[in-house]
Amino acid sequence: MGGNTAFPMLGVAVKPVKGSAILWGNLHPDGKIARDTLHGACPVIYGIKSIATKWIHANDQMFTRQNCKRSKLSFHFDFSDES
After folding, report:
1. Would you place residue 75 in the very low, low, confident or very high pLDDT band (cuts 50, 70, 90)?
2. Which InterPro entries match (predicted)?
3. Please, what's the b/e burial string for 14-30 (b: 16 or more CB within 10 A of its CB; e: otherwise)?
4. What string of DSSP letters covers 42-83?
5. Which residues contact 3 (CB under 8 A, 6 or more apart)?
6. This prediction's pTM
7. Which phi and psi angles does 70 have, rounded to 5°?
8. Contact 79, 33 (CB under 8 A)
9. Fewer CB within 10 Å, N or C, the chain?
C-alpha cells in the first residue's frame, strides 16, 4: 500500500505494481525543461518499494573521467528564464 509516484503538476499518481515500470521525459522537444514532470515518491504504508533509475541523455555527455576526478567542481544552473 502507498508508495505511489506523484506528479503534482499533472494531478497524477502512479500506483506501484510488481514487475512494472514507468518512463517519462523531462525535456520538451526544444530541450527546455518540462516542469510538469516534477515528481516525488509517496510514503510506503505497507510493504517494500524498490526503484531503479536509468538516465537517458538527450545531449552528449558533458563530463569525462578526467574532469570528474577534480576535487573542486562547481556548477550553477540558472532556470530563471524558463517558463
Report:
1. low
2. P4HA-like
3. eebeeeeeeeeeeeeee
4. PPBSSS----------SS-----HHHHT-S--------TT--
5. 15, 16, 41, 42, 43, 44, 45, 47, 49
6. 0.64
7. -65, 145
8. yes
9. C
Tell the residue number behind the cell numbers 538516465, with chain if given.
55
Write the pLDDT tens digit of every residue in 15-59: 998 888 899 988 888 888 899 999 999 999 998 888 888 888 776
The residue assigned the cell 532556470 is: 79
At position 70, the amino acid (one-letter code) is R
Nearest to 3 by CA among 35, 30, 34, 40: 40
The residue behind cell 550553477 is: 76
Burial of 83 (0-12, 13-18, 19+ CB in 10 A): exposed
